[in-house]
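Write out the bound-state structure for iron/sulfur cluster.
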Amino acid sequence: MPDPRYWRKPFDSDKVKSPKGVVYVIKDRCKGCGFCVEFCPRGVLVLSVEFNKKGYHPPEVVHPDRCVNCDLCERICPEFAIYSLNQDEIIELAP
Amino acid sequence: MTVAENKKTIGNIPEHPKSLLLRMDRMPHIWCSRCGIGIVVGCLAAALEKAGLSPDDITITSGIGCTGRVAGYVKVDSFHTTHGRAIPFAVGLALSRPDLKHVVFSGDGDLVSIGGNHFIHAARRNQNLLVICVNNFTYAMTGGQLAPTTPVTARATTAPYGSFENPFCLPNLAISAGADYVARWTSLHIRRMTDTFEEALNREGFRFIEIIAPCSTIYARRNKLGTGLDLMKYYYENSEIKHDATAEELEIGFQTKIVVGKFVDKERPSYARAMNRHLGKILGKKYIPPEVGGPQ
Ligand code: SF4
Ligand code: SF4
Ligand code: SF4
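---
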C-alpha cells in the first residue's frame, strides 16, 4: 500500500480516462501459441483448458474489465484470431 | 476500420478488423503454431491501414518459402514468384506502374541467398521497392537447411555439428549496397515495426526492413531453444534499440544480443527518376520518358 501522504490522484484523472476495450477471440482460428496471453499488459487473458476444433487451447478472457483496448493482442497474434474493439464504439452501434 | 465498416461476422462476433486487407477465407494459414511470420503480415496490414492506402494502391510480391506464402493471404494484387525472383519481378512492376506502391515480402533464404544478386543490384540501382525480409535463420519450408543467415554454431539439417560459416548480416549487406532506408526489428516489436512500415511505404527508392522472427518448428526445435514463445521472450530480454549502431554491433551471433532500430534514412533519386533526369539532360527534346510525366 503506498504511503497516503505521497499518494495522489493525477490532476487530470477526471478528464483523461483510460479507454475500455472488449476482446473478441475467434476460437477456431487460434493455434494456442500463447503470445497474447504472455504479452497482454493487463493480464486479461489465460489459455483455456477447452480445446478448439483443431485441438489447440484458445485464450479465454478472464478479466474483461481490465482491457484498455491497446491493440497489442491483435497485432501480436500470428493467426488473426483475436482483437479488441473500443467499448464506446460498440455501444454506439447497439440499437 | 471501425466496427461500422466491418459488416462480416464469424460465428456470432464481427470478423477480424483486418479482413479488408487479408484473405480471412483462407485462414487458418499454413504457418505453424508459434511461427512469427503471421505477426509481420498483421503489422504490414496495420501499416497499410494507418498510411490510408487502399488495397488498390499496392502490390505484394513474394518468392518461395514459408514467408513466400504471404502473397496468398493478402487481399491486394499479389504475386507468388519463383525461388529468389521476387525482386526482379517487382522491379518490372515498379517500372511499369510507378503510380502504385510495391512491396516485396519474403524470407532470408529466398531474398539473400537464391535471390542475393537481385537484392544487391536492386539496392545499388535504387529500385523503387519496399523489401521486407522475415529472417528466421534457416530454410524452413524445405526442412531446415543451413541458410546464409544461420549464425555460427547454430545447427541445421545440413550442419548437424553446427555451422562454421560466416553468415550475412542483412542490414550491413543492404547498407553497403546503397539502400536508402534500412531498419531491423524483431517480431516482438509490433508497434515500431508497424511505424517503420508506414514510414517506409511513404518513401521512395530501395527500402529494406529485416524482421527477426521465430521459426518454432525447425530452427528453435533443432537448436533446443524451446518454442516460438520462448524466442519471443528471448527477444524481449535481449534486443537493444540503437539507431546509430556500428556494422559490428549489427552482426548477430547464435543467441547473442540483437541490435534493432532504423539505421539508414537518406534520399537518392530512384532508378526511374535518375534515368529520366539523366537522359533528359543528355538528349533534350529527343528523349521521351516511358510514360506521360515519367515514372516516379
Ligand atoms: S487489447 Fe490490450 S489490454 Fe485488451 S486484451 Fe488485448 S492486449 Fe490485453
Ligand atoms: S496470439 Fe492468437 S493464436 Fe496465439 S494464443 Fe492468442 S489468439 Fe491464439
Ligand atoms: S517451418 Fe518455421 S518458418 Fe515455416 S511456418 Fe513453421 S515455424 Fe514458421
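---
The interface with chain A takes residues 2-4, 10-11, 13-14, 16-18, 22, 24, 27-29, 31-39, 42-43, 46, 188, 190-191, 194, 228-229, 232-233 of chain B (CB under 8 Å).
Residues 37-50 of chain B form the longest helix (14 residues).
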